[in-house]
Design brief:
Blueprint (H helix, E strand, L loop, with lengths): L26 E7 L2 H10 L1 H10 L4 H9 L11 H4 L1 H15 L4 H8 L4 H11 L1 H15 L2 E4 L4 E3 L2 H13 L21 H5 L3 H43 L5 E6 L2 E6 L4 H17 L5 E5 L1
Antiparallel strand pairs: 1-5, 1-6, 2-3, 4-5
Helix pairs in contact: 1-2, 1-11, 8-9, 8-11, 9-11, 11-12
């Protein structure tokens, strides 16, 4: 599996099999979590916003978020955005996911141009991403590990987070020569050049390595947490499906999707309930499950 606990397959790569090549005994069905990553994030770090979305009874969380940022831009319901303005919605969704997974102002400016910066900052503010990252970076600083799952207090380590935790105490000695944003949430260090050049070669090396490690920790800490929690949900979903005693067979797991050889139509609702309940068990909120025949 992946470092976060996500299931991966190789030799053969079952997850990469073309759906059209699968020959089920019954009918091939796809069951997937709607808005998987963003709902996980909100359940972990912004419960009030998640509750507001659920109270709205809207289906498309990304469209709903966009309408929160631009309340007067559209003259139709947010759930129609995917049909009426699919490119606008998809661009916004991609920016939200990239923001969750560590995109900096420099990244989004490179991808979209400077005009995207106000929207990027609005997304950070609406979702409280800065506060979430601070919590995870503090955890990484204390432990030298990334937090993967809060409920079970599970964590993982890679060379970036271990390097950061080791070098941080040393680099703090020279924090005064750096800007106030030395440990900024955008992951960018701005060092006062003249003061930096006064450091000995060894000292510069420590600061530079800490800068590099920190930038990677900022990008990975929330990514690993969401992906790791998602892996727990998927595994719990499969356990729930098996316990529900369906006659249909689970074939393939793909991130937020479960492919099923559906033998009995009555299994559709059972599988949806089993998967939605898994999210409730792990992050305390159910997630809508979309099913469709392939």
């Amino acid at each position: 599996g992946a470092i976060t606990g996500r299931i991966q397959t190789s030799a053969p790569n079952i997850q990469g099999i073309d759906k059209s090549s699968i020959q089920p005994k019954g009918e091939l069905y796809s069951f997937d979590f709607t808005g998987f990553e963003i709902i996980i994030y909100l359940a972990l770090y912004n419960k009030p916003l998640l509750q507001e979305f659920k109270d709205s009874e809207k289906n498309d969380v990304f469209a709903w978020l966009m309408f929160k940022i631009y309340p007067n831009k559209f003259n139709f319901d947010s759930d129609q955005l995917k049909i009426k303005e699919p490119d606008v919605r998809n661009k916004f969704k991609t920016l939200v996911i990239r923001s969750l997974y560590g995109a900096t102002i420099q990244d989004v400016t490179y991808w979209y141009g400077e005009n995207i910066i106000p929207l990027y900052k609005n997304i950070l503010a609406l979702l409280s991403i800065v506060a979430a990252k601070k919590e995870l970076i503090d955890y990484a600083s204390r432990t030298g590990r990334y937090l993967v799952n809060k409920k079970y207090n599970l964590s993982i380590q890679d060379r970036w987070v271990s390097t950061y935790a080791i070098l941080l105490p040393e680099s703090e000695k020279w924090k005064h020569i750096m800007s106030d944003h030395v440990f900024s949430d955008e992951g960018k260090f701005i060092v006062q050049k003249d003061a930096f050049e006064e450091l000995h070669v060894k000292e510069r090396g420590i600061v530079e390595k800490c800068i590099e490690a920190y930038g990677n920790v900022v990008k990975l800490c929330l990514n690993y947490h969401i992906q790791g929690t998602g892996a727990f949900i998927i595994k719990q979903a499969i356990s729930n499906i098996l316990k529900s005693k369906v006659s249909s067979q689970v074939l393939i797991l793909r991130h937020d999707e479960v492919l099923v050889d559906l033998i009995n139509d009555e299994d559709i609702s059972k599988i949806q309930i089993a998967m939605s309940t898994a999210a409730l068990q792990i992050v305390g909120t159910s997630i809508h499950i979309k099913s469709q025949k392939i």
